[in-house]
Amino acid sequence: MFYITKVVFIIQETDMEQSDKEKVQENTATKKKCCKKKSIRKTIKILFALTIMNTLIIAACLIFLCTYKPKVLLLGAAGQEQLQKKQKMNSSKDSYEHKVKTRTAKTQIRMLEDALVAYKLDMGEYPSTEDGLDALIKAPAKGEKWKGPYLKSPVPKDPWGNYYIYVNPGIQGDFELKSYGADGESGGFGTDADITNYTID
């Protein structure tokens, strides 16, 4: 009887072990299936993102090509002539504006020169560099003989929006009055050249 119960117990244990093994196998199988599903989902998401990115890149390229299509079409001799004409028109506009501004600067410098001469007639000397052109509008510290203002309006800026430079004494005369031109810096050539009371025609 003891042996029979022992055999039954061993059989039950083996059955339980087999059922446990089957459960473990089932769990591993389900885990593998879940992992496969997750990897498939990730792959689908990546492919979807890449598809969207490619679509956006293609759309951007199409917009770029459509925007610059007129420039791309101007390739023949006629297109080159049109581009040259436009460049000439733009350069002529720039040169015309520069000429107008240069004339305006020269006119303003002459006007300031006349005001400085009137100042000297009353004061006996030109304003110092420290007093500057403001002495034409407001009396300086030692201004007993001052009979200004010698300008009807505030001291103007040059046509490029910068202040005129006044130095007393000047390099070539009693004073130097100048605009630094288009670049707003001393020196330069062409449109950037300085305009001084010495160089005015």
Give a concise summary.
With 201 residues, this protein is mainly α. The protein is built from three helices and three strands, in the order αααβββ.
Average pLDDT, to the nearest integer? 80
Order of helices and strands: HHHEEE
How many individual helices? 3
Question: What shape does the CA trace take?
Answer: elongated
Strand content: under 5%
Taking all Cα atoms into account, the compactness measure Rg is 45 Å
The CATH class of the largest domain is identified as Alpha Beta
Q: Level of helix content?
A: 55-70%
The largest sheet is: 3 strands, antiparallel
Unreliable segments (pLDDT under 50, ≥5 consecutive)? 6-11
Structural class: mainly alpha
Q: What is the CATH homologous superfamily assignment of the largest domain?
A: Glycoprotein, Type 4 Pilin
> Can you name the CATH architecture of the largest domain?
2-Layer Sandwich
- Biggest sheet, strands in spatial order? 1-2-3
Number of strands: 3
CATH fold-type name of the largest domain: Glycoprotein, Type 4 Pilin
Taking the alpha carbons of the first and last residues, their distance comes to: 139 Å
Q: What is the total number of structural domains?
A: 2
